[in-house]
Amino acid sequence: MERSVAKAMEYTHHYASPLGGITMASDGESLIGLWFDGQKCFLAGLSEAYEEKSLIIFNDTVRWLDLYFSGRVPDFAPRLSLRGSAFRKAVWDILRKIPYGERMTYGEIAARLSEKRGSPTSARAVGGAVGHNPISLIIPCHRVVGSDGSLKGYAGGMQRKKYLLALEYFALGKI
Hints:
Number of helices: 5
Strand order of the largest sheet: 3-2-1-4
Shape: globular
Oligomer: single chain
Order of helices and strands: EEEEHHEHHEH
Number of strands: 6
Strand content: 15-25%
Helix content: 25-40%
CATH topology of the largest domain: Arc Repressor Mutant, subunit A
C-alpha cells in the first residue's frame, strides 16, 4: 500500500512598503520568507501550494516593518525558521548580528566563518549565501558591502539598498 506524505501548508501575506510591495511567507508558525516583490530569488523555497492568510506571525512582521520603515530600530524580531544548508545558515546568523546602521564586508564575514569552522571560507562563497537570503531586511543582507566599502549587489536592487542604508544612517543621526 502506497503512503502519501502530506506537505505542510505555507501561507503568504503582502505588505506595502515605501520601496514597493513585499511578500512574506510562513509555515503557519514562523516567518520563512520575506522578499521585495519580483526580486532575485523571489518566493524561492516556497512550495507551489500556498495561500494568502492572516496569521499572528504576519502581524508581528508587519509591526517590525512599520517600525523599521518609520526610522526606528525594532526591539524584537519575528520568529524565523530558516531553510538552507548549514553553510548558508551560518552566514545568515552572522548577518543577523550586524548592528543597525553598521556595515560588514564579505571578507569580514568569511574571516568569522573561517575562525568558527576552522577552515578557510571564501568571500565569494559568502556572497552566494548572502544573495540567497530568504528573509530580507530582518536578516540584513543590505548591510554587506565590498572590501573597499563600496556597495555591491543586492537581490532587492541597488536603489533599495541605498535607501535602506540611508534610512538607518539617518535614524542614528549619522547623516
